[in-house]
């Protein structure tokens, strides 16, 4: 069996990979910080697939073998358009999880000709095993995988022993399917919908974790719309930015102070809260912003002398890294509970 370099669970590298394969840059991969319902609310919607990386433990392998035996004895029926393939290349599970995720959402994600589209055109009429062999023989796919495997933060080589595995979870025909090229076939985890898919897929991920309660090496990655920028239309903020962009930080503050439209908007908003407030009241709380700029996480606080660089980050890792900085604030005041964290995210329909 052919061996590829193992892939790292790095959402930015994986996003670069799928774009190289021919996926529209309107779609990317991000880390899912947590599987509790309130944390899932932070994930951009719609979520087209979840990819789970988990350790290949003795407990999991025992469970998998027993389940596969049941599937062989009573083969289930699947939707005709559910794309599934067998893994015929060592260390290709990351690529196969991506193929499973994308091939079952191709009408939305693929932008035309490309490595993945060319592969799918040849592979769709084939058996599950033949699809795996077709991938093994695909030179363009092999080169793309090997290139991305070397872009991660960890040095890898063909001799490395790999003890973790990628699988995909997708919504097809109103059911959630676990797609793993090392299983005997797709695994149906029950009914779902576009609205409930993320919650239902998180439940399946938790089941994997529950089988290995002492294991911490789980990673969940979501295929979601890319958040490139926030469009700012004509209005109070746009007018202020036009006047302030070329100024010094001090001058920008003075320009805001003198901006009548901004002042009016602020005071109107301040009176809409649930607590009555007036200018004479002393405030004992303070807002700061955390942003990703050019691959670094910056704390922006108008009372400080300059921005504070909290280290490297990325689009896929930003929420996780920003949460770490928020925790550092909280740890400095362990007896204080008056902390609030607010996120700027796409509006959920």
From TrEMBL:
PANTHER family: UBIQUITIN CARBOXYL-TERMINAL HYDROLASE
Gene3D superfamilies named among the record's database cross-references: Peptidase C12, ubiquitin carboxyl-terminal hydrolase
Provenance organism: Hermetia illucens
Chain positions of site Important for enzyme activity: 180
Chain positions of site Transition state stabilizer: 87
UniProt keyword RNA-binding present: no
Entry keyword set: Hydrolase, Protease, Thiol protease, Ubl conjugation pathway
Stretches assigned to the UCH catalytic domain: 3-225, 221-346
GO BP annotations, alphabetical order: protein deubiquitination; ubiquitin-dependent protein catabolic process
Official protein name in the record: Ubiquitin carboxyl-terminal hydrolase
Highest taxon listed in the record's lineage: Eukaryota
InterPro entries (alphabetical): Papain-like_cys_pep_sf (IPR038765), Peptidase_C12_UCH (IPR001578), Peptidase_C12_UCH_sf (IPR036959), UCH_AS (IPR057254)
Catalysis: reaction(s): Thiol-dependent hydrolysis of ester, thioester, amide, peptide and isopeptide bonds formed by the C-terminal Gly of ubiquitin (a 76-residue protein attached to proteins as an intracellular targeting signal)
